[in-house]
Write a structure and sequence with these properties.
Elements (H helix, E strand, L loop, with lengths): L5 H73 L11 H13 L1 E8 L6 E7 L2 E9 L14 E5 L2 E2 L5 H12 L6 E8 L2 H10 L6
Antiparallel strand pairs: 1-6, 2-3, 3-4, 4-5, 4-6
Length: about 210
């Protein structure tokens, strides 16, 4: 067998080095790709965590504002009363119960993109009204919305006379349009009867 010339041996060595360099490049690209995927997943999780924190902060601020408003209302209605001066007469108790029964209030909450986790029923036959039937355990509004709350606005759109199908279309449209936080506005009533009276008194807006 003829021995390889120095030039041929050098060429083979060069080809081996090129192959080794190509293998290293391919391995480096695989590593780069895996790091990029991991980074993208980490950034996505971070964005979701930041968004969740923003939602909690917005809802906490709404709680503070509602508490301030209710305190002002109570002080306006009853004045400043020392605990030892409270009149517990039957007339005052009846007056307090009447105020509590007749009262309802509007509140705002915020939810991230995705399902709200709320089911609704129509409040009264006289008109469309989205009234909460139940709140799922994984709802972003769990602990905020509750049964018999009436949805009156979603993400800037009035829903007071909207039926359930139209509301579903609205939620789907807003979920696929951007990734911002949605604002949910509801009215809460003392009880179901109070809710029915409110809806029937506003029946001129029915479809």
């Amino acid at each position: 067998m003829a021995s390889r010339t120095p030039a041929a041996a050098g060429r083979l060595a060069g080809l081996d080095e090129i192959d080794e360099a190509k293998r290293r490049l391919a391995a480096a690209r695989r590593w780069e790709s895996s790091i990029a995927i991991a980074l993208d997943a980490a950034e996505r999780r971070l964005r979701e965590q930041v968004q969740d924190a923003q939602v909690h902060l917005l809802n906490a601020r709404e709680d503070v504002e509602e508490a301030r408003a209710r305190l002002r209302e109570v002080e306006r209605r009853w004045g400043t009363i020392d605990a030892g001066e409270v009149d517990e007469s039957p007339a005052r108790k009846r007056q307090k119960r009447r105020h509590e029964t007749e009262s309802s209030f509007v509140f705002h909450r915020h939810a991230p993109p995705g399902p709200l986790g709320l089911s609704f029923f129509v409040g009264v036959p006289e008109r469309n009204a989205l009234v909460v039937r139940s709140v799922s355990d994984d709802s972003p509004l769990l602990g905020h919305a509750r049964r018999h709350d009436m949805l009156i606005e979603f993400d800037g759109v009035n829903t007071e006379d909207m039926d359930i199908d139209a509301f579903r279309e609205l939620v789907l449209a807003r979920s696929s349009n951007g990734d911002g936080v949605r604002k949910v506005t509801m009215r809460r009533f003392a009880d179901r009867q109070n809710l029915k009276l409110f809806l029937r008194s506003d029946g001129d807006h029915s479809d």
